[in-house]
Amino acid sequence: MNGLSAVECYLQDFHQRIVGSTPAAFSKLPAKANGVIHASSYHVLASLIPGETRSATVLDLGCGDGHLLGLLADRRQPGLDLIGVDMSRAELEAARASLPGDVALLNERAQHLSVESGSVQFVLSHMALMLMDDIEQVFSEIRRVLSSRGTVSFIVGRSFLSGPVKQLYVDALRPIAKDEGAQLRFGDPRTQLEDCWAALLSRSFHEVACTDVDVDWTPSPGELWESLSTTYDVDRLSVSGRAALRERFLAALVEVQEHDGRIRTGWGQRLVTAKARRH
Ligand SMILES: C[S@@+](CC[C@H](N)C(=O)[O-])C[C@H]1O[C@@H](n2cnc3c(N)ncnc32)[C@H](O)[C@@H]1O
To answer: What is the distance in A from the centroid of ligand 1 to the CA of 162?
Structure first.
């Protein structure tokens, strides 16, 4: 893979060193969407693939270590073909080790897929599209590989932490990241805003719908720090920057700990669904 942007080089390097950080954060936390509680945000997406479908291909874009594909493979649904795409070799190696051999795994960029045009009925993506450069090219590729009645459904970030701990974290991180010049802007800023999805998708898709997905979490301070320490922001800090952040943040957490010592927080996500426009 040549000609990667600075962000893509960083993402490749991160996922080479740290595999499976996203399922570690989200796979065990229940997720609420449209008043329904799912076992996790991965299950929210899996629930959109009908169980009775006779013959369909599902493509997971930015599939990481294959957690979402694993949920679908576990159904052993006849006629359901699965494809995972990711630009990280290490994540795909982990996926290969855990998924059945008939799940196709492609080490490529979402902006240039080798998948045949019109051959996919469902494109899914969990916590990956908001990281991608040239999002318009990504949607053009998604539309190209989808069949005429195909759908795309993806979950992206909406709120990094919730409740008072969010501001405590920002206040602790910002001055350290600024001192270290560690800022890197991921993806297209429009993907952060609910209002922008309809416009971003409108060329190739219609019936665009956005739904909030809320993931509640009450970690201990240690669990919270462990999860944050494998995020891109913290990973880019120096060893001393990370130590300073840990110390400041854990000290600040004292004021928001519940009686049992735990922190009431969570993650806000956004589910976006859309149908392919006919060519
Ligand atoms: C935050 S992880 C999420 C992984 C997985 N979807 C999950 O939720 O467990 C983002 C993934 O997107 C992949 N990724 C980011 N940009 C990509 C691109 N342009 N093309 C293909 N994969 C990409 C990364 O390599 C990484 O595995």
So the answer is: 23
pLDDT, position 182 = 66
- Beta carbons within 8 Å of 158's beta carbon, 6+ residues apart: 194, 212, 213, 268, 269, 270
Whether 207 is in a domain gets the answer: yes
Backbone phi, psi, residue 28, to 5°? -105, 0
Distance 256 CA to ligand 1 centre (A): 33
For ligand 1, atom 12, which residue shows the shortest CA distance? 62
Domain annotation covers residue 165: no
Q: What is the CATH number of the domain that holds 98?
A: 3.40.50.150
Predicted pLDDT of residue 195: 86
Measured from the Cα of 91, ligand 1's closest atom is 27
Helices assigned H by DSSP within 150-193? 165-180
User: Of the candidates 74, 88, 100, which has an alpha carbon nearest to the alpha carbon of residue 21?
Assistant: 88
Longest dimension (CA), the chain: 58
What the block records as the tokens of 26 is 């989200």
How many Å apart are CA 170 and CA 137, to the nearest integer? 32
Q: Which two tokens stand for residue 214?
A: 């809320």
Q: Is 86 in the pocket of ligand 1 (CB under 6 A)?
A: yes
Closest ligand 1 atom number to CA of residue 109: 20
Domain total of the chain: 1
Tell which one of 22, 89, 99, 130 to mutate to probe ligand 1, the residue whose CB is within 8 A of the most ligand atoms: 22
User: For the chain, which ranges sit under pLDDT 70?
Assistant: 2, 182
Structure tokens at 191: 């993907």
> Quick check: is 164 in a domain?
no
Task: Please name which of 245, 109, 230 lies closest in space to residue 173, comparing C-alpha atoms.
Answer: 245
Q: Is 128 in the pocket of ligand 1 (CB under 6 A)?
A: yes
Atom of ligand 1 nearest to the CA of 110: 20
The pLDDT value recorded for residue 150 is 97
